[in-house]
Structure formats: C-alpha cells, structure tokens
TrEMBL record, chain A:
Transmembrane segments: none annotated. Belongs to the eIF-2B alpha/beta/delta subunits family. It comes from Triangularia verruculosa. Coiled coil: none annotated. Residues 128-138 have a biased composition (Pro residues). Component of the translation initiation factor 2B (eIF2B) complex which is a heterodecamer of two sets of five different subunits: alpha, beta, gamma, delta and epsilon. Subunits alpha, beta and delta comprise a regulatory subcomplex and subunits epsilon and gamma comprise a catalytic subcomplex. Within the complex, the hexameric regulatory complex resides at the center, with the two heterodimeric catalytic subcomplexes bound on opposite sides. This is Translation initiation factor eIF2B subunit beta. Keywords: Cytoplasm, Initiation factor, Protein biosynthesis.
From TrEMBL, chain B:
Signal peptide: none annotated. Component of the translation initiation factor 2B (eIF2B) complex which is a heterodecamer of two sets of five different subunits: alpha, beta, gamma, delta and epsilon. Subunits alpha, beta and delta comprise a regulatory subcomplex and subunits epsilon and gamma comprise a catalytic subcomplex. Within the complex, the hexameric regulatory complex resides at the center, with the two heterodimeric catalytic subcomplexes bound on opposite sides. Belongs to the eIF-2B gamma/epsilon subunits family. It is found in: Cytoplasm, Cytosol. Residues 1-23, 436-464, 512-550 are annotated as: Disordered. Residues 547-732 form the W2 domain. InterPro entries: ARM-type_fold, eIF-2B_epsilon_N, eIF2B_epsilon, LbH_EIF2B3/5, NTP_transferase_dom, Nucleotide-diphossugar_trans, W2_domain, W2_eIF2B_epsilon. PROSITE patterns: W2 (PS51363). GO terms for cellular component: cytosol; eukaryotic translation initiation factor 2B complex. GO terms for molecular function: guanyl-nucleotide exchange factor activity; translation initiation factor activity; translation initiation factor binding. Gene3D superfamilies: 1.25.40.180, Hexapeptide repeat proteins, Spore Coat Polysaccharide Biosynthesis Protein SpsA, Chain A. This is Mannose-1-phosphate guanyltransferase.
Length: 425, 739
C-alpha cells in the first residue's frame, strides 16, 4: 500500500509546487479561493502574490508593455478583492507594476542610448539590483504624467518609443523579417527582466525578517524589559537575534492561555530558544499586561501592514498595549518590512478591524445567553501613528516622517492612484 | 416525492472526467454528495427548486457543500440526485467554478449519478457499491451541509484506526453544541443520541428521540456495559459528514432494506456489530462549525450563524460566489454593490443582495434579502428570508417568515411569524395572513399546475392558495413514527409543539455521562434518570411491542412461511437474513420477533395438517417443519428464543401456543397435539430445555381462556414424560439441582 497522503487540504506550499504543472489561470483561481477561505494569510499573501504574478508575466501572452500592465493589474485586483483584509497583496502588485514600468523605460533609454548595439547587450546592461537598493528612477516624463488623468497613456507613448527603438536595432539580430522579429525580441528581453525583478522581490520578502533582526542589538539594550505582544515571526526572529548579543527580559503577552493545537503554553518554542540564550521570559495574559507596563522599557509589535500615514494593522488587542505604553511614555517599536508599507490611507473597514469568528471568545455551546449577545471578535487592530515611536524596516530604523520617502522609492505614482478594489479590467 | 422518470439506473448525467484524474486515483480523496432527501420538509419551496439550490444567505446551499469539500482538498466528487436532478446538473454546468471541464474547478472530476428507481438514501449507496467507483476512503456528505471543519486530522485518525484494525469502517463527524444549544442549533424535532466509548471514541449505540413519542427513554444495549466508561450524548449535532471505507457500501448492500443513513444504517450496524464485526467511530469537534440545513428551523439557524460569522470563512463578505461583491457595513450588515438604502431606513444584522433598494423609513433586521428586491417605504422586516426579485410595497410588516423569489406583497399587508410564501405568490394590499397556523402559500400545486387563487387568503387581487403538505405514505417521508410524525415538527419554520398531540412538553435531554450500573436492571437495560430530580427519559425503539407491529409482523410471517414452504433443499439462511433485515428496518422488539417466528412456524405446521397439503399427522408435520430445513432449528434457537435462561423459552412456547390457537380452521384438540409435537421436536433439537417447557406449563398465561387451556391440556403427556425424565435425571445425578 502506498504511504497515504499526509494531508489533503490545499495549502500555499502545494500551490507553489503545482504552479508549473497547471495553467496559470488555475493557479490564480486556486489562490483566490485560498485567500477567500483564509487558508493563506498574513505574510504568506505577499509570497503567494509574487509567485502568481511571476507566472502571469512568464506564461501569459502579451505583446507590449500595456498589455502586460493590464494583465498584472487585472490579476492583481482579483487577488486583492479576494482578500480585502490583506493590503500586502496590493503592495506586491504595485511593486511589480512599478518594476515593469522601470524595466520598460530603462529598455527604452538603453535603446535610445545604445540604439546601434545588439539586443544581448541591452539585456546585460539592464540593472539586476533589487529595486529598493536602486535610487528611484523618476524620469520627468513620468512625473508629469501624474497630472494627466490616464497613466497608461504615457506608457503607451513610451512603448511606441520603445518599439521604434527596437526596430532600429533589428538589423543587428540578423532576422529575416525585421518588423515581425522586433516585437518578440523586446518582449522576451522585458519578460526576462521582469521575471528577474519579481524574483528579487521574492528574495527581499524572504530575507526581510533577517535584515530587520540585524538591527536588534541596536534597539535592545542589556538589562531591558521588553514587552512583545503576540510576537509574529518577525518579532520572534528579532528577539532571538537580540538574545545572542544581549541579556534582557521579555514579557510575552498573548490571548490564549493554552495553544489549542499543541496543548502547550503559547510561544513555547520561542521561549525555549530565548531561554537557551539566557534571556528570561515571562508569559502574560493580555489583560494583565497593564500591571507590567510601568516596568517595561519598550514595546515591540510586528505590523501586518503599515499605511502611508504611519498607522498600522496588528493583531487584535495590541492597540491597548500601545495605548498603555503611551500613557507610561514607553517607546513603541514597530517591525515591518518595506513590502508591508502600503501607499494608501487606512480604509474605514481597516480602522474598525476585520471581524473573526466569535467562537474564539464565546463557545457556541454556551446556550441561550449566546443568542442574546452580539459578539464582535475583531482579529485586527489599527494603531494610529501617534502611538508609534520608530519603525524598523529591512532598510533600517525610520521615523514616521521618513515613511513618505520609502513609499516614493518603492511605488510608482501611477500605481498608487490605481485602485485595486475597483472593477475588473 | 416524485421520482425520476428515466429508465434504468444508467448514469445519464455522467460526464467525462478531466484528463489527469486517473493517474492520481490512488490517493485522490473522493467524496459522495447525496443531493436528494426524499423528504418534503421544504415544501412548497422545493416545488420549484431542489433543496440544495435554495439560497442560504443568498448562496445556493450546495455551494457550501462543494466549497467545504474543496476546502478539504477533495479531488473527485460524485453527486447523487433525485428530484430536480436536471436543475442541479444545469446549475453545475453553468457554474464557472464547479463545471469540471473548467480549468478553475478544484475537483479533478465531478460526476452526476442518477438512480431512477431510488426511493431512499440507502438505494443511492447500494447503487454506488455496484458501480465500484470508490477506490479508498471517501467522504459522504449531504448536499445541504454547511461546515468549515478541517478534515485532515480526522482523516488521519480514521486512517490510523483502519490500519490498526481493518474493521474500523466509518468515522462519524459530530459537533458538540451543548445542552441548550444556541438558537435552534439542533433540529429539535429529532434528537440523535450517541453512546460513545470515552477512551477510543467508538460509537456503541445510536438512537433517536423526538418529542412526539410517548415513552421517552433509551434502552442501552447490554454490550455497552462491557466498556469501562462511556458517554451517552444528546448534545451533538449530526452534520451528516461520514468518513467511510468501501466496506460501508458493502454493509449497505448487505442490508437491502436500510433507508436512512442514521436511523436505519447506523442504528442497525451498531446493534448487530457482533454479527458484522464492523466498528464505527465518532469524531466530536468542538471548535469548528458544521450543520445541515435539513429543515426550515436549521435553515433559519444556519443563516443567522453565517451572518454572525460563526461559520467563517463562510461569511457574506468572503464572496465565495464568483459574482458576489458583499461588503461589511455598519450595524453588522452586509451589502452588495448596487444596493440603495435610502436615508432614514435601517439595516441591522442583515445581508442585502445586489440592486435591491430600500426606501426611506423601512427597517430590516436579522434578515437576508435577495437581489433585485424592491422594498418600499416604512416596511418592517424582521428575522425573515426574502429571495431574489421580491417586491414589498409600502408599510408591509413581515416577521420571521420566508418569502421566495418574485413574491409581491401589497401595501400594509401583514405577514406574521412562520409564514412560508413560495415563488410568484402575490399578496394583496391590506391582507393580514393568519397566525395560527401560519400560512403556507404556493402558486403551484404538487404537480406544477397553477392553483386556483384563494381570495380569502391572499386578497382579491392576490395570487396563490394555501398549500397543504400531503401526508401520505407514498411520499416516503420515512421518518414517520407511529406515535406521531416528527416531520411535522420539521417542516415549519418555527419550532412549535402547539397543536400536536404529545404527552409531555418537556423535550428530554440527557444530563451527563454517568456510569450506570447494569445490575440494577433486571432487563439489562439502563433506564436513565437525570440527576436534578426532574425525570427525563430517553426513548427506546427497541423496547415496545407496538412499534409498527402490523407491518413487521405481517411481512415477517409471510416471509418465513414462504421460506418454509419452499424447496426443501434450500438453506434457511437467506430467509434468516431477510428476517433480520426486516427486523432492523422496523426496529422490531424481541418479543414481536418471537411472536412472528412462532406464528410462522405454527401456521406452516397447521397448513401441513390440512388435506390439500398432504394431511400429515401432527408429529410428522412438526418434524417436517422443524427439521425440513437446514438452519431452521438454529434460527429458532438464536432468534426466536434468543438468549439464555428459562424466560425466553417460556415466552417462545407461549408464542407457539398462541399462534396455534389463532390458526383458523384448526380445532383445538388437533392444535394441542400439534403443539405437543412441536414442543417435543424442539426439545429434542435442544432449542427448548425441559426447564423451559416445565416453566411454560406452570405459567399462568398459558391457561388464559378456554381454547388456550384446551390446547395446553394436550401437552400434559409430554410434560409428564419430561417430569419423569427429570426425576430420573436427578436420581442419576444428585449433584445437579433441578427445580
């Protein structure tokens, strides 16, 4: 008998494994339903979106930049609408759109400058740095385009230049029919560039936690008391990294007294790791954290998403901790990778918070009293920017006033205006 | 319920499986959806649409089931349809998501199977067994299941159990909802009672109770007490999700008369587990949601649960359907795009579908409104379900009712609690529908013809007439009981015992899983009492003679007599099997079985005495009847007498005596001789022991009435002989004490 499959339920890992073997449209739909069923959430959404967009760029049929942008926008908005509670998806889509615009404009520039050189040279000359490291290429043409109602108009004209330029270098490719050959060559080059770019974004997502953790020893000083409210993976890594260099005490606040899955105390693995480095850990029930706040030196959160005003989404309950810290003048440190920075203001729904299943607070078996209650279990909290002291990104610590420049570096103005939640293309 | 007209059980609706489905067959997870219920609880709505296409929070019920299967990674789906099967097939065909040829369908194959002559769920499963489509473990669900359970751990447990013991054939997924469930969380009509072993969660016994039976108690099987600790649980929702091995289908095939998966199959298999050796386990989930929209009350309850997000990810704003666009707005409501809610109107804890408009001054609370509805000014809608395209004019009041699609409600009409208004009905202005009993209005008859409008009910310009739920047997609502039909409780939106003839109003529940001492009970059955003084008893289907006595008795006797008449070389086993099946199907008690067997044998024996059947001597006839067939004696010993000790033997002897007395045209002298001959044969076949016969002789009941005494007298010779033999016995063997 063959070893039975361990699990049947679809998951992101399975989806990524099957990406190559199925039509990309199938993968998109599969992801949409994973998102709708909340089988993929949090940071995984970013990874999943990048994977899907990579497939779209690599496998869908497109002949010019406009088509590609349109394709990515439509797929992106479908994904974003499937999970309006995960703005990270929109961030990745915007990053990819920006990437495509960059590559297209660069190719145009290259073609302009090096019109007589061969296509292969164009490819090799294209920058391979990840976008964040690169100073934002803000051609005058694109800046001015923001005032114009249609951003796509510009790229169309851009493309015309591009195709004109590429047709100029067709003699060098040795093709028999210059006109028909021109398009595929540039499309192919662009495709490769964009795929490389998306892979870099994926690398960035993957390495972001480590990069953030590398700032840990600057932030946490020996002998400090640190409150971590429901530490996310990012926060865990941050604390562990700090523990290798520093001796301090961590208060871990959490809602569930016992992890329902394993029956262990929450964050048992994290505590073990911290203890092995000689860091003392204390578990707190979230409602008891007020008593300790005066003792705490700083409060650390991992953000789900950081809006352009500096406000952020966190797991529910964290806002109280942040407010308590504010009352006691304790600094609040927010960990969030650059890809979590969202060039939007928080929507009303986001500020109210996403509603979860009431059963985590009230048992369905509770009888008539349950019927008499209206139970709202918000699973996310919005922390207003005024409560946050410093944001630690994978590019280093930032204050609220510098968030705008990070956003400007990473998103194209055209894409910021593009609403992902409106109708499909 | 009307049956499918097609010829033969051929799978007309079968569609080619998607390529690539076959090579993964080994470990692809399979699921079977039962999409017909052979019930009419959703009448009159189901006249137009099958139950699994009725909208539940504006999404057809079957979507929830399919999504639940997709959520758990099911690859191959088989759907069994009955009535309206074309509609269901068409729906799936037109669905972008579920059409198996669509690239976005999460299933590798989705097949429809039609069984034209099926009259019960059992017929479906027996058909499935014949088709051998199932290669391994599969999930059996109903087409009205709403659940968000993660089945992976359950499947893993099931697999581990099956590998440890090949007889572990089924895992029943149940959900605990507490003693006094939130809302109508349980189908309060019928409460399932599971007896579960605490250590390995094996299901030991299954019974059902409902408020209409007079004698609410639960007779625990003797074998239950062999387990160290067990719980009797009536706080569970049976969500109809079973994880089965193909053995389960074989069991269905063996028991050709099982109809319902629970009441017949589960009850029967557990009852006879010593015969079939199959083990059934339960999986009780506490932290996930699962329920079946199996009646209107459950429909109501699940709708509310979805609105309150208990069933996440199934909430309106998850937009699981392709063209949905729900957003959460204030007051815990969900609104689709294109909805116009005028100022001054309130929408509380409701869902409102696309392009519906709500005019000023109206208030909607706890309701689900479909698409393209028009709701006028100052309308008040509370706890109601309104399907697509309904028009409600100014000032109407609708409380806790269901209005199907394209209904028109005139201005200032009043629709009180519990009203069910089917498709295309029109209620004239200023009409007040009756409250007791709540109106049930349809524009169609059972046969799909338009009804004659009942102006006194729906007003002079109205359309539609009262719909009567037909309550005849051919409807095959197989949950009928002799004490009253619990289905009555289930086809109303509002759970009410009013107007129904029941002995007490308290719906009984079991308090807890105390350990009951079997010794206290002489019948080896635990009568359960709740600890708080108030006596609550659970029902028993096994204890009383009266449960369907006629149907069972008649069928059983005829079956046995036919078998006895049959070819002499034939084995008696098939007759036995049939008899056992009949017994399980009818929940016949031991005593009615005994009676049936005794009557069958005496009838055959008496028949042989008559000249046209050879006019045998009584002794010859008795021998022919009892020894003529292989296994007949064993059958009597195991089933007819059934059990050790003197008491069952006395009962059987009495039954024989009564049987002979009741045979027509047999004069009592001859009957007595025949009885003596039968008893003697049974004695020599070791079916009856001398103690048993002597105890019968001494029993008062054997001498009630003139004929009985006459018949009995004829056996005196036998008894004297036995007594003598007995004395000799005790003389020879003095150690043995005989009384």
């Amino acid at each position: 008998m063959p070893p039975p499959q361990a699990s049947y339920a679809p998951s992101l890992d399975k989806l990524i494994k099957s990406l190559k073997s199925q039509p990309y449209e199938t993968s998109i739909e599969a992801l949409i339903f994973l998102l709708k069923r909340r089988q993929v959430k949090g940071d995984d959404c970013a990874v999943a979106t990048a994977h899907i967009l990579l497939q779209v760029v690599a496998r869908s049929k497109w002949h010019d930049v406009d088509q590609l942008l349109g394709r990515v926008q439509s797929v992106g908005s479908r994904l974003a609408r499937a999970a309006p509670h995960e703005p990270v998806i929109g961030n990745i889509v915007r990053r990819v759109l920006g990437l495509i615009r960059d590559e297209a404009s660069e190719e145009r520039n290259n073609a302009d400058d090096l019109g007589s050189e061969s296509g292969s040279d164009i490819q090799s000359l294209a920058p391979t740095n990840p976008p964040p490291q690169r100073p934002a290429p803000t051609p005058v043409l694109m800046r001015s385009s923001t005032a114009a109602p249609g951003g796509l108009q510009v790229s169309k004209s851009m493309f015309n230049i591009l195709s004109a330029a590429t047709s100029a270098d067709t003699p060098m490719t040795g093709a028999s029919t210059p006109l028909s050959q021109a398009q595929p060559a540039s499309v192919h080059a662009l495709r490769t560039e964009v795929i490389d770019g998306i892979e870099e974004i994926m690398d960035e997502i993957q390495s972001a936690d480590d990069q953030i953790a590398s700032f840990a020893d600057v932030q946490i000083h020996p002998g400090e008391y640190v409150l971590a409210y429901q530490p996310t993976k990012t926060v865990e890594r941050f604390l562990i990294k700090a523990a290798t260099k520093r001796r301090f005490t961590v208060f871990i606040a959490s809602i569930d007294p016992i992890d329902p899955g394993t029956g262990e105390k929450p964050y048992a693995a994290l505590r073990k790791k911290l203890n092995s480095h000689g860091v003392t850990t204390v578990n707190l029930a979230s409602n008891g954290l007020m008593a300790y706040i005066s003792r705490v030196n700083k409060v650390i959160f991992g953000a789900k998403v950081i809006y352009q005003n500096g406000g952020l989404l966190v797991d529910s309950g964290a806002c109280i901790a942040a407010q308590a810290a504010r009352e006691f003048l304790k600094p609040v440190i927010v960990l969030g990778a650059v890809y979590k920075f969202c060039p939007e203001d928080p929507s009303d729904e986001a500020v109210i918070g996403e509603l979860g299943n009431p059963s985590s607070f009230v048992s369905y078996a509770g009888g008539p009293e349950v019927e008499a209650l209206d139970i709202e279990n918000t699973v996310t909290d919005y922390i207003p920017p005024s409560l946050v002291e410093v944001y630690i990104t994978n590019l280093g610590p930032q204050t609220r006033h510098h968030l705008a420049s990070i956003l400007a570096d990473h998103y194209k103005v055209e894409d910021i205006g593009y609403s992902l939640h409106d109708g499909e293309v | 319920m009307s049956k499918q007209g097609g010829k033969g059980a051929a799978s007309k609706g079968k569609k080619p499986a998607k390529a690539g489905g076959d090579d993964k067959r080994e470990d692809a997870l399979q699921a079977v959806i039962i999409a017909d219920y052979f019930q009419d609880r959703f009448r009159p709505f189901t006249l137009d649409k099958p139950r699994c296409l009725l909208p539940l929070v504006n999404v057809p019920v079957i979507e929830y089931t399919l999504e639940f299967l997709a959520l758990n990674g099911v690859q191959e789906v088989f759907i069994y349809c009955g009535t309206h099967s074309e509609d269901i097939e068409q729906y799936i065909q037109e669905s972008i998501r579920w059409n198996p040829s669509s690239i976005i369908c999460p299933f590798s194959s989705l097949e429809f199977i039609r069984v034209s002559d099926a009259t019960s769920v059992g017929d479906f499963l027996r058909d499935l067994d014949k088709r051998s489509l199932i290669s391994g473990d599969f999930i059996l669900v109903h087409g009205d299941c709403v659940a968000n359970i993660q089945l992976d751990p359950v499947l893993a447990k099931h697999r581990a159990r099956r590998e440890a013991n090949g007889d572990a054939c089924m895992t029943v997924v149940l959900r605990s909802v507490g003693e006094e469930p939130h809302r109508a969380a349980k189908a309060r009509g019928i409460t399932p009672v599971f007896v579960v072993d605490d250590t390995d969660s094996r299901c030991l016994q299954y019974d059902e109770i409902h408020p209409l039976i007079k004698d609410r108690r639960l007779m625990l099987d003797q074998s239950v007490f062999k387990h160290e600790s067990f719980s009797v649980r009536s706080d569970l929702i049976d969500c109809g999700i079973d994880i089965c091995t193909p053995d389960v289908l074989a069991l269905w095939s063996e028991s050709f008369d099982y109809e319902l998966p629970r009441k017949n199959f589960l009850h029967g298999v557990l009852k006879d587990w010593e015969l079939n050796g199959k083990l059934i386990y339960t999986e009780i989930v506490e932290d996930a949601y699962a329920a079946r929209a199996s009646n209107l009350q459950m429909y109501d309850c699940i709708s509310k649960d979805i609105l309150e997000r208990w069933v996440l990810p199934f909430a309106p704003d998850s937009n699981l359907m392709h063209d949905q666009s729900y957003r959460k707005v204030k007051n815990n409501s969900y609104v689709e795009s294109g909805v116009v809610v005028e100022r001054g109107s309130k929408v509380l804890q409701s869902a409102v579908g696309k392009y519906t408009s709500v005019r000023a001054g109206s208030s909607i609370s706890g309701s689900v409104i479909g698409r393209r509805c028009v709701i006028g000014r100052n309308v008040n809608i509370k706890d109601s379900y309104i399907f697509d395209g309904t028009v409600i004019e100014d000032g109407a009041v609708i409380v806790h009712s269901i209005l199907a699609g394209d209904v028109k409600v005139g201005a200032n009409a009043h629709i009180p609690e519990g009203s069910l208004i089917s498709y295309n009905v029109e209620i004239d202005r200023d009409v007040r529908l009756p409250t007791k009993p709540p109106a049930r209005i349809s524009a169609k008859t059972d046969y799909g013809e338009p009804v004659e409008n009942d102006a006194s009910l729906v007003g002079p310009n109205g359309k539609g007439a009262a719909y009567e739920v037909v309550d005849d047997d051919s409807d095959s609502d197989s949950e009928e009981e002799e004490d009253g039909d619990p289905a009555q409780l289930q086809n109303n939106l509002i759970y009410s015992l009013e107007g129904l003839n029941i002995s007490t109003l308290s719906v009984s529940t079991l308090a807890s899983s105390d350990d009951y001492d079997s010794d206290e009970d002489d019948e080896h059955a635990g009568y359960l009492h709740a600890g708080d003084g108030q006596r609550e008893r659970l029902s028993s289907f096994t204890s009383d003679d009266s449960s369907k006595p006629d149907a069972f008795h008649g069928d059983a006797v005829n079956g046995l007599v036919d078998a006895l008449r049959g070819d002499d070389n034939e084995d008696f086993d098939s007759a036995k099997l049939e008899f056992m099946g009949l017994r399980l199907a009818n929940n016949a008690s031991d005593s009615s079985m005994r009676r049936a067997i005794a009557v069958a044998f005496t009838r055959r024996a008496a028949e042989m005495l008559s000249p046209e059947h050879g006019g045998l001597e009584p002794s010859k006839a008795a021998e022919r009847v009892l020894r003529g067939k292989n296994g007949a004696a064993k059958f009597i010993r195991d089933v007819g007498v059934g059990g050790d000790g003197v008491k069952p033997q006395v009962e059987f002897a009495l039954a024989l005596q009564k049987g002979l007395v009741s045979v027509k045209g047999l004069e009592s002298g001859r009957a007595g001789t025949l009885l003596a001959a039968l008893l003697q044969q049974l004695y020599s076949l070791d079916v009856l022991e001398e103690d048993g016969i002597l105890a019968w002789w001494a029993d008062k009941r054997a001498a009630e009435g003139e004929t009985m005494t006459k018949v009995k007298e004829k056996c005196k010779v036998l008894v004297d002989w036995l007594e003598e033999a007995d004395e000799e016995d005790s003389d020879e063997d003095e150690d043995e004490d005989s009384d």
